[in-house]
Amino acid sequence: MAARLHHFLLLAALLLLIGRGAPSSAGAAGNGKVPVELYYESLCPSSAQFVTDRLAEALEDGLLEAADVTLVPYGNAKVGKDGTITCEHGPEECLLNTVEACAIDAWPDVNVHFGFINCVEGLVMNEIQGEWESCFHKLGLEPKAVTECYKSEHGHKLSLKYGKQTGALVPPLNGVPHVVVDGKPREDGEFVSYVCKAYKGRPPKICHEPDRHYPTVVEAGNGVSYNPADFKLEDGVEVPRTDDN
Length: 245
Fold this sequence. Notes:
The protein is of the alpha+beta class. It has nine helices and ten strands. Strands 2-1-5-6 form a four-stranded mixed sheet, sandwiched between helices. It has a two-stranded antiparallel ribbon with strand order 3-4.
């Protein structure tokens, strides 16, 4: 009897260890949420539109109930041999990339730093990004931490860190905005659907009420994903829609 009990306890301990050592890919942070990374640059019109439109709407609709969102403000910038960063849209973009990196560092809560970044990118959309400091007042945020950061070597180091993170992407970055869901690059217009597919918890409202902003993703038999809204039926066969359909 004692031998059986000892054998049972050993088996139970082994199963517990196996269970702990084999987490699912979704929720790599350990909270069950799906990791989502947005690689972008501050003065890119497509990036600004994605932040202020699609991502802002998704967060408002409860995306954070299912996802851990990470913003990476760097994009297509390059680092010279002396450590100097050159940005695709010039020095002003380097400044705002660093400002937004400092906001993420100063306010780790995504609701707070995204609110600030969303405000700045809204100014970019209106071509008045030079007024970015007004976002502190609009949101009631203390500017000191961000101001000291972007003017210091710390801000530069944050940008270099995001540069390394961007440079490590597989496959490499080929444009912005670039969205990675659960470790895989996804079309920015469909990222919410991929989050909902990967999330194993109770689906939040955003997954129950998809609309034109969150197209449904279907896996075809050949392993290719597509959005059925882009197709129509002709004689029982799906064919791509055109502007005239």
